[in-house]
Amino acid sequence: MPTKTATERLEALLDTPAKTGDGYLDLLGTAAQAGPATGLTQRLMRTTLLPQVYERLWRPALGRALKGPLGPSMAGEVRLATKLLALRPGDTALDVACGTGRFTRAFGAAVGPAGLAVGLDGARSMLGKAAAQTNPDSVAYLRADAVHLPLKESTVDAVCCFAALHMFAEPETALDSFARVLKPGGRIVLLTSARRGWQPARVAESVGGILSGQRMFDRGEIAASLRARGFAEITERYAGVTQIVAGRLS
């Protein structure tokens, strides 16, 4: 059994000291968020109301609308992410844009007491709700920049980023950062937007993305970006206007 707490072990992975917040470590201080706001959806994440209904209502309903009737439920997403990351006891998993911690808690259970599951988000309200949940002892939360990760190089075994990459102002920079903090052989899984090839649908989906401040990636675009960064064993799953892409860093 580890002698240090999950938060203490997280501190050892950071490349800069963090202050203790409301149940989490904080690297953003008084800043409302890291980087520029990209639209309405991202601004909603910072409100105090949304975290109260995020896991139970908002995220499942929004996910179903975007994934369509054949896409996985939120619980199904958690199971799939955990499987694709191939988490083992003792691993270190990073949940980027963790929200209220649904995935982080599952990862904490998968890696066990000897492992570490880090939930990273920029919203105080989300992290406050996450820290107030019943979390495994292996879970720690961090308020920080999700695009320029403040972790040392090659420090985590797995990176998950669900329903967030399309809201980042610099998604390609974020992918660089994800690859940098992963150990060789580490795994990544992403859920993000996927614009369809049929032209009328592409136009409508692009307009919807502009209005909500979300980037609409093309199908195959994320997989190609991962290959360019040295990832292999890449898999792609599409549902509605979403894609789940996973891979292993060579």
Automatic annotation (TrEMBL):
Q: Which GO terms describe its molecular function?
A: S-adenosylmethionine-dependent methyltransferase activity
Please name the InterPro entries in this protein's record.
Methyltransf_11, SAM-dependent_MTases_sf
Domain Methyltransferase type, residue spans: 94-190
Q: What's a Pfam family this protein contains?
A: Methyltransf_11
Question: Taxonomically, which superkingdom?
Answer: Bacteria
Name the GO terms of the biological process aspect: methylation
Q: Does the keyword Transit peptide apply?
A: no
Which keywords annotate this record? Methyltransferase, Transferase, Ubiquinone
The protein's name: Ubiquinone/menaquinone biosynthesis C-methylase UbiE
Biological source species = Amycolatopsis pretoriensis
